[in-house]
Amino acid sequence: MTAFTGGADAPDAAGGNGLSASQSAAAGFAVCVASFAEWRDAARDLLLHGVAPHEVQWAGEGQGGDLLSTGAAAPIPRGKPGDAATLAPSTQPHLPRTLMEMLQTAACCRVPDRWGLLYRVVWRWQQGEHDVMSPADPDGARLAGMVKAVSREIHDMHAYVRFRERPADAGAPRFVAWFEPQHDVLPQVAGHFKRRMGGTSWMIATPDATVMWDGATLHTTGPLLRGPADIEDAGEALWLTYYQSIFNPARLNAPLMQSHIPSRFWKNLPEGAVVPHMVSAAAAGARKVGQMEAVGQRKGRVIPVAAEDAQPERQQPSTLDECRRCELWKNATQGVGGQGARHAKIMVVGEQPGDQEDIAGLPFVGPAGQLLDRAIAQASVDRAKLYITNAVKHFKWEPRGKRRLHKTPAQREIDACHYWLEGELASVKPKVVVTLGGTALKAVLEDPKATLKDAMGEPFLHQDRWIVATYHPSYALRVPDHESREAAFNAIVVAFERARQLAGK
C-alpha cells in the first residue's frame, strides 16, 4: 500500500493542510491545480475533511493544464465565510500502489474532467468501493481508458519523434525535435530519451512546453519553437534522397502504411514531404516499372537445382546418345555405358570415363583400367563375371595444352546421371556393389554428404545390397611415393576379395 500524501506536513485537527473551517462550506469548494502533485495535496486535504466529490469543483478543468508548471495548490472557498462548520478530519488515506500508478498515469490524459474523475475514484476507494478499479465499473472503465491513451501516446512519441541535427557551429543542443502530443507525456518521454541518447545534447519542443538535455541535467521550460520549420537540418536532404531510393512502389500498400502511422504524425516527419508524391507516382504507373532498371543491372547468381526439378516433364532418353540431362554431352565424344555380365553378382561403379574411355566408348580401358585388372586378378575374381560402369557417363574435362585433363563431376551432374545408374542396378540386380572413389559412393548411396573415409573398412548393407567402398584406381596412380601406391593398390585388392566372399554366400 502507498500512503496518499504529497510531501507536505500532516494536517492538524483544526482544518488540515491549508483547508480552514471557514472554507468547508456547504456550497462546496473550487480547487485549482496544474499538476498531479498539486492535485494529490488538494485531494488529500479534501479526503481528510470528508468532502464528497460532488461538493468540489476543480477550477481550470477543460484547459488541459501543464504538468511542467510549478506552484502550490490553492483551494478557493465558495459561499459565505462563516457558513461552514469545522469538519472532523478522517483517518490518513492510503491507496494501493497499482491504483496510485494508474492515477498518476491518467493525470496526463487531457480530458475536461480529469481531476474530478481522479478524485471521485479515490473517494470511492476510501468508502470501500474497491470495484472502482475494475474495467466493468463506469469510473474504472474511464480510468483504464485514460491510462491506455497515455501509454499509447508515450509509445507514439518513442516511435515518431524525429531528431534533426543542427549545424556544427550552432552549439547546443545538437539534436532538436518537434512533436505535438495529445496528452501531457513529455516528462515520461524525456526520461526515455535521456537514457537512450547518453551524453549527447538534445531538445524536444512541443506547443505547450520544451524539454532540454545538456548531457548532465534535464531542463524544462515553456514553448520555444512554433513548429518544425524553425529547425535547420543540413542532413535532411541526404536522408530524403536515401528514403526515396529504398522506396519500392511495387510493394506499396497505402492503407497498411496509413494504419501503421496515423495521419497526424506525417506532417512533422521529414519523409512526410515526399511520401504523397511517391504514392501518387506509384498509382500512375511506377508500381509496374519501378524495379525494372535496378533488376536489369543485376548479374544474378547460379542456383543449384536438381535436373528433374529444373526441366519440364518430358520423355526420358532411351540411349546415352540421346541424353541431354546435363551439359557434359556437349564436350564429350560419346556416352560410355556399362559393360559386363547382364546378371552379375558384383557390380563395379567408378567415377566417370577418362580420355581413352571417351574415345573407345568402353569403361576402364586406360591406365586406371589396367591397374583395376591387376587388382581383380590378384583377388581371384573373374572380370568377365563382373558388371563395370561409372556414376557419370560422359567425360568431363578441361584443356591443358593439347591434352584433356580429368575434372571431377559436380553434384548436379551426378544427380542428373543417376537415372542411368538406377536403371543398371535394377537390370543387373547385383548382390554386391564395389564403389571406386567418393563420387561413385555418393551416387550409389544418393547421399551428397557420404565420404569414402567413413565408408571404407567394413562392407555394409544398402537397399538389400552389400556396399564395399575402396579407392579409385587412378588414386593409386597419382600418389607420389611407392609405399602409398602399394597401400592403395592392396586396399583395392582387399575390397574385391571381400566382394567375392559376400557374393558367394
UniProtKB/TrEMBL annotation:
**Top-rank lineage group of the source organism:** Bacteria
> What are the protein's GO molecular function terms?
4 iron, 4 sulfur cluster binding; deaminated base DNA N-glycosylase activity; metal ion binding
Cell division among keywords? no
Q: Which InterPro entries match?
A: DNA_repair_put, DUF4130, UDG_Type-4/5, Ura-DNA_glyco_family4, Uracil-DNA_glycosylase-like, Uracil-DNA_glycosylase-like_sf
The segment(s) forming the Uracil-DNA glycosylase-like domain are: 337-490
Which keywords fit this entry according to its UniProt record?
Answer: 4Fe-4S, DNA damage, DNA repair, Hydrolase, Iron, Iron-sulfur, Metal-binding
Q: Where is this region: Disordered?
A: 70-91
Gene Ontology terms: biological process: DNA repair
Q: Which family does it belong to?
A: Belongs to the uracil-DNA glycosylase (UDG) superfamily. Type 4 (UDGa) family.
NCBIfam families linked: SAM_7_link_chp, UDG_fam4, UDG_fam_dom
Q: Which PANTHER family match?
A: TYPE-4 URACIL-DNA GLYCOSYLASE, TYPE-5 URACIL-DNA GLYCOSYLASE
Query: What is this protein called in UniProt?
Result: Type-4 uracil-DNA glycosylase
> What organism is listed for this UniProt entry?
Zemynaea arenosa
